[in-house]
Amino acid sequence: MALGPQSRWRRVLLLALLPMLAAIFYYVSTTPPSFLPHASSPSSDNMTFSSDDASMMTVMKALYGPIVHPVAAPNFTDEDGETFYLPKGKDDPRFKKSLGKRVLILDVDSRPLNHEGQILGKELKWKGIKPLAAGMLSHYMYAQVHGYTYKFIHAPSYEDRWGTWTKVPMMLSAIRTRQFDYIVFMDSDVVMHYPHLPIEWLLNYWDVQPGMLAAMSIDPDEPQNYDVRGNRYLNTGFVILQNDRDHEGNVDGVEGKESRLETMLTRWAECPDEGYKHCKRWKGDWPHEQAAFGTFVRYDPLFSSRPSLAAEKAGAPPENTYAKGEAIKVLPCVEANGAPEAENRGGCKGLFVRHYWVDKSLVASAVSDGILQYWMPRLHHGLIDSGNIVDAKGFQLHGAEAVELHGEAREGARKGKGTGSANLKEEGW
Ligand SMILES: *[C@@H]1O[C@H](CO)[C@@H](O)[C@H](O)[C@H]1NC(C)=O
Ligand SMILES: *[C@@H]1O[C@H](CO)[C@@H](O)[C@H](O)[C@H]1NC(C)=O
């Protein structure tokens, strides 16, 4: 066969390539295998990489990037196959693209948290990781996956109040930076169950409207979760704040005016001091700042035009106690509170946002769920396509030998019938 000019070139190229391939092979076989860019190779028992190492970001992007759920998607199907749709009439959703750095994922804690396994301890290991460290790292990861801002504020504590109160002035100071349109505050035992699902999709799904200041989940229907007026508390472990300043950072076109959201957070923070009457006891009594919000702030006429219980008394679900156009959006317990292990607590199973008040020791495995639910299917695909599964089902064992079967016997063996199948116990493992 005569060689055309093209194939001749190919041959020349191939010849030139051979030494190169040999060189690469030599390189590959003499350097430790590493597919991560810039990975400084730590010793095998040291899991810490230097801080300028970009490989972690690459891994996260590679794992989540291709599957990030579109912000404006009309639906979302969960791991059980249940599909959730945007509310009726909202096919043209409010949020169409990622808000990126204008979303702040916020952790706040005033405890030292510097012991082994804690977030500020040195050289964190997975073994012995404390639940709250796992939770915070999952928030950090969530922010990285979607390009949001993340901050953990290691906060001062009040001298005369329970520690969880610090979240309120810290949320206020974050809002006052004017750098964020949305702040998603999470207690450290709160985990986004689907890290690939952007918060903007949830804002669409929960129909968060302009004018709303905050969205929080209602607590389970249990006696300790009711305020003195007989309304259920909103859980302050997961709080979405919506900045109500305009694009220039003004309020009602006025520069320097305090926004309604800032007023709400200020009144909340001042509740037990000079704020609302009888709020003082919540400085130390459980549930602290949650009770202050639930008992006083949410009924403040500035934030609620309908403080009465009329709707609830009339049999409407508590979720609808607050009228349209009010400042506080109440999220369903089943979607934004609790965990599957708490389903018997009023059905609060944390479909989207899990809150492990039921058992903090479950946080770490919940966090690993948020990674392995994506990692494992891809690993599985890789294995199935890798050519490393050897199909020897068409053979029959005789002593040390595997003898190839033919015809019907082979077909039967491959379908799991025939010799030996009675000795198998399918236990579903
Ligand atoms: C582990 O590796 C990191 C970065 O390479 C280094 O800073 C750290 O000192 C190492 N730790 C130990 C215990 O060797
Ligand atoms: C969800 O939305 C996508 C995009 O419009 C559509 O292709 C898909 O059929 C929808 N899924 C369900 C279950 O409705």
From TrEMBL:
MF (Gene Ontology): glycosyltransferase activity
GO annotation terms (biological process): protein N-linked glycosylation
Gene3D superfamilies per the UniProt record, alphabetical: Spore Coat Polysaccharide Biosynthesis Protein SpsA, Chain A (3.90.550.10)
UniProt entry tagged with the keyword Transferase: yes
Cellular component annotations (GO), alphabetically ordered: Golgi membrane
Residue ranges of the region described as Disordered: 408-429
Parts of the chain that traverse the membrane: 12-29
Record bears the keyword Transferase: yes
Family designation: Belongs to the glycosyltransferase 34 family.
Protein name listed in UniProt: Nucleotide-diphospho-sugar transferase domain-containing protein
